[in-house]
Amino acid sequence: MAAFLGLFRRDLSLALRQGGDTGLVLGFFVLAVILFPFGVGPEPEVLQRIGAGIIWVAALLAALLSLDRLFEADYRDGELDLLTLSNLPLELAVLAKCAAHWVATGLPLALTSPFLALLVDLDPGAIAILFVSLLVGTPALSLIGSVAAALSLGARRQGVVLSLLVLPLYIPPLIFGAGAVEASAVDGGARAYLLILCAISLAALAFCPWASAAALRQALE
Amino acid sequence: MINWLANPARFMRLSASAMPWCGWTAVIALTIGLFWSLVAAPPDYQQGDTVRIMYVHVPAAWMALSVYLFVAAASAVALVWRHPLADVAARAAAPIGAAFTFICLATGSLWGRPMWGAWWVWDARLTSVLILFFLYLGYIALVNAFDDPSRGGRAGAVLALVGIVNLPIIKFSVDWWNTLHQPASVLRVGGPTIAISMLVPLLIMALGFGLFFLTLLMLRMRTALNERKAAVLRLNAGAARGPRPERARTVSAHTAIP
Amino acid sequence: MTEPAPDLVAEALACRRGERLVFAGLSFRLSAGGALLLTGTNGSGKTSLLRVLATLIRPAEGRLIWGARPVEAEGAVYRAQLDFVGHQDGVKPGLTPREVLAFWVALRGIERSRVPRLVEAALAAFALDGVADWPCRWLSAGQRRRIALARLVAAPASMWLLDEPTSALDHENQSRLERAIAEHRASGGRVVVASHSPIDLGVVAATLTLDAFALPPDYAIAG
Description:
The complex is a heterotrimer of chains A (221), B (258) and C (223).
Chain A: H1 2-18, H2 20-40, H3 44-65, H4 72-76, H5 79-85, H6 90-119, H7 124-151, H8 158-183, H9 190-220
Helix pairs in contact in A: 1-6, 2-3, 2-6, 3-6, 3-7, 3-8, 6-7, 6-9, 7-8, 7-9, 8-9
Chain B: H1 8-40, H2 54-81, H3 84-116, H4 124-143, H5 149-162, H6 166-176, H7 196-240, H8 253-256
Chain C: E1 8-17, E2 20-30, E3 35-39, H1 46-53, E4 61-66, E5 69-70, H2 71-74, H3 76-80, E6 82-85, H4 97-107, H5 115-125, H6 141-154, E7 159-163, H7 171-186, E8 190-194, E9 206-209
Helix pairs in contact in C: 4-5, 4-6, 5-6
């Protein structure tokens, strides 16, 4: 347990000390959302209709940007070997790193979303559901992303391969996350979508650390 | 039997004799199947002649899923038992599976236009098959993304196994969700609901597609093994010009080619 | 009375890197207090052998036996008693040496109360006290190597696997390492060192020159 918390704290402090990382992700998030009114026109009705989807897609892409640093540094400087050989099972090490990644990336994305929702003219009920959906869905993004990051460790064009692997896998959380906001127009309609989103995150929690650890072991061999 | 096949030399001999049989039987099956389905089979009472796209679309879909299962099984064998040919088999099969998936999506789209009025709809079955297509592409990209080919093989094997979760989703998507795509008519509990006059040409086409896959698989595996042999010979030719260490050692054949 | 630590026995190990077999038919026995020096040219498989011993790589052929049982069966127990120092230092530029060592000790499952003392001892063993609170990006290559080696002292383990430990080290620090190895062996630990520069390990159990286990260029090809 102490080892798990130690790894979590270390990864988190590295991410925050590097500082720029969270800022870059948030910067990209904001810019990506801002691009859409220029692309589809600024009419409030249009933006309101597609707003939740825009914010979710932008959050996905922003999360994608930060995935390659999840294991890369440890792989490059040999610390991944040490993590594999330590007392902490590799699956738990992956979980600790994903948790730190979520706190440094997913959580800020979720917290920034209400402000961006104002830019696309969503009404307060929808904004609340959007925030909750991102809060519940971004852990799945970090976990699923960790599998793709582990698989593409050391690849020639890691960023591109990572995107190709992870974006199809991001489609289920996207469907239910953005769908929840749309369904919230009907009273209580969002509940089913949010529950399924929770289920996706929990399934990712159960499955992904194990898959990532397997991929990491193959990377080290 | 898998162990017996592990020897690349034995595989080359077997496939050399099996390939012509497989190939010609595939040609015959496809010829009969195409004639039967495009000409002789009855038109559907609702869809008319449009239904004939089914005879290509459905076998392609079956192959897309089966080939993925094959890739995943070969990957499991490669990771767990380190079978030397399993990695070769998985890599050879993946592009064929991707092609079948593409044919399935394209013919489905052509069928959907007259049936549903749209080239594409975002229902559960179509979306999950599209994800399968991207899984294939991702697998192919991943195994080719590394300078060390064996690292690529291992990464691809893990990806193939991870992506298995998509298969039950595809199969049962028409049951779990309200989809535009029709529910299962052949592989379902309670037996097929499709008419025999349509089922038979469908199965013949499926047989033809399957044999075609096997032929192509053997061809690709033989090519891959020949490429490796050529690379080893190049390595030897280069090393033979260098200094020789004192101890000579013969290594058994099936470990010489990884 | 504690029972003696089990011998590590390698039987006909072979290792595949990429598409070639780097070595084959390699066997040795390493007992408590023993040392094994791996030498050989670049590419002969010294690092690969160390990684096989650390269970990071599965051998293509052969077995590794520890205490009469194969290492795969023992898994976590075997790994818990070994320390691996690879080519790279495993030192994050954004952390200080003290933080690096404290993290490592926590990772080895040692309780919090003992951590500070162990970290101080490790820092002192390689004369890192002066730079203990500097971020590692300010440190030289030799200082980072010393942090990697300080891990050996910080969280004791009975088997040390060292890959080119003296690279980037000056003479004084190499002596410190040799002393640490001697103390470790005296207390019953064992060490496997891969090095192509001279290192004094005292009475060495065996020197394995890996080139002797390389495959000759004309190995049989099937088909």
